[in-house]
# Entry
Amino acid sequence: MLNKNMLQQMQQMQKRMQTMQEELGNEVVQGTAGGGAVTCEVSGHQELKSIAIAQEAVDPDDVETLQDLVLAAVNDGLKKSQELAQKKMAALTGGLKIPGLM
# Structure
């Protein structure tokens, strides 16, 4: 049975989580590949926002390399976005691993 104090703490945690989720949506990390030949931006919600490809990375005779660079840049951006979300969640929960939150 929850007492009043525990209920208030849970409500405060829920509000902080909502705020954190909003902040994550506004934050953007950058993924790169090929020494910056391909860059992408990914939000804290793991949403791909943009991709930029340097002109020298475009070789019509070697499309596979460009595809690999795009894939690597996006995966790098997604990884950084997930790390950002985990860092924010750890700050919110004090490092506790709470199932279902992240």
